[in-house]
Design the sequence.
């Protein structure tokens, strides 16, 4: 019995310590928009000159991280940053979608408000803003980018797409931005997005064995960007990789070399 109590105490101590480290590395922020308060997390590199402007990334999580715990949206970033802190020489904003929602215009508006507040807080560089997302968040990346085509220097889509995987209800459709609704009504949705974003630097990653979001979504997007005459398209199709390709994407050194060169 005594041994069990000691094990429980050790576990609780470790958990509290882990929470403390996470809070220190990814501090909580809170914002109120149109009377609605919400929390999000940020990351800022430990070693930086606060007087020098810093790039800022907005990261949109996948469906499995929805909720209000203000924790799950971090995904694997704590691990990836710990492995290679030298690669993450930019601030990151981590908003969180509540349950039963996705990255429609109202949630994107909150995410962009959190981004703008963070840019002010950390002396962010308006010319070096990055937009990244995984799965549901990658769909959100495309919807955010087409609504704000001049805001971001680079966008990163991991296991995402632009064509809904199921039926979109009338209620959900009403929450789409005008730009997304227009593109969705186009005879070729992929080309509509590519034509609108051909001047933005794009990095697309997808596993060829993804059984959640078909790899054809990213293949068709990449092909459409080529037709549009995209100035900077990078398509990475990962052989033998399923839907969990986000770790592959953010462990790729070439991604960070590319981001280091991006500026509007």
Sequence:
């Amino acid at each position: 019995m005594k041994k069990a109590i000691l094990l429980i105490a050790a576990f609780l101590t470790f958990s509290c310590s882990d929470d403390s480290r996470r809070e220190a590395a990814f501090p909580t922020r809170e914002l109120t928009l149109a009377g609605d308060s919400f929390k999000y997390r940020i990351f800022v590199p430990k070693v930086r000159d606060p007087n020098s402007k810093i790039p800022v990334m907005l990261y949109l999580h996948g469906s499995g991280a929805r909720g209000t715990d203000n924790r799950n949206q971090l995904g694997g970033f704590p691990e990836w940053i710990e492995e290679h802190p030298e690669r993450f020489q930019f601030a990151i904003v981590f908003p969180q979608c509540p349950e039963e929602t996705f990255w429609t215009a109202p949630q994107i508006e909150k995410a962009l408000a959190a981004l703008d507040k963070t840019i002010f807080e950390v002396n962010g560089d308006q010319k070096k803003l990055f937009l990244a997302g995984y799965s549901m968040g990658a769909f959100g990346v495309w919807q955010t980018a087409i609504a704000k085509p001049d805001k971001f220097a680079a966008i990163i889509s991991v296991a995402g797409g632009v064509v809904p995987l199921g039926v979109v209800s009338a209620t959900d459709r009403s929450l789409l931005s005008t730009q997304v609704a227009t593109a969705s009504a186009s005879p070729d949705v992929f080309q509509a997005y590519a034509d609108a974003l051909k001047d933005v630097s794009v990095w697309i990653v997808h596993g060829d064995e993804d059984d959640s979001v078909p790899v054809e979504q990213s293949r068709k997007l990449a092909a459409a960007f080529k037709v549009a005459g995209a100035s900077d398209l990078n398509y990475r199709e990962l052989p033998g990789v399923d839907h969990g390709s986000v770790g592959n994407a953010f462990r790729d050194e070439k991604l960070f070399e590319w981001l280091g060169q991006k500026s509007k």
